[in-house]
Amino acid sequence: METPEGLLARLAALGIEQRTVKHPPVFTVAESQALRPDLPGGHVKNLFLRPERAPGPFLLAVIEEDRAVKVNALVRSLGAPRSVFADADSLRTQLGVEPGSVTPFGMVNAAPGAVRAVFDRHLMEGFEWINVHPLTNTMTTAIRPADLLRLLRDLGHVPELVDLSKPV
């Protein structure tokens, strides 16, 4: 499993500009809002889901933090099977992170095809920078959305942009 330091080194090796700040652990969007003066740009919430019954890939939804989302409506809109929040063991196995540290950077640890990564189009097209955890909730990394998508493609993933302008 990749470490935060290894991830940041990987970004540097790819020539991807980023800014990372350390802070006390944050577990919720509300806790992270206190960090805002030091973290301009878009802020995310991440939903990591697993199919309830059917086999299939896990689902990582990266959404603008204040976007209202109903899980069942989201998975239906994506044509995915009924899903539930993944447990801590699945987080560790698939993304290499602990609860409270879910991040699209966790895709560095996921096998291609094991996790379907979907991104709120407004988030990815509406901000010059977005802020995500670099595999730990004690740091936040600002990265350009296009660079994050390029990283995922370089890792063999196929990130999807989805329109969540209508409530789901």
Beta strands, count? 8
Helix % is: 25-40%
SS element count, helices: 6
Distance between the termini: 33 Å
CATH architecture: Alpha-Beta Complex
What is the global morphology?
Answer: globular
State the assembly state of the protein chains. single chain
In the CATH hierarchy, the third-tier topology is known as: YbaK protein
Average pLDDT value? 91
CATH homologous group name: YbaK/aminoacyl-tRNA synthetase-associated domain
The fraction of residues assigned to DSSP E strands is: 25-35%
Are there runs of 5+ residues with pLDDT below 50, and where?
A: none
Tell me briefly what this model is.
Helix content is 27%, strand content 25%. The protein has helices spanning 4-13, 29-32, 71-77, 88-95, 121-126, 145-154; strands at 18-22, 42-51, 58-64, 83-85, 115-120, 130-132, 139-143, 160-162. It starts with a helix and ends in a 6-residue tail after the last strand.
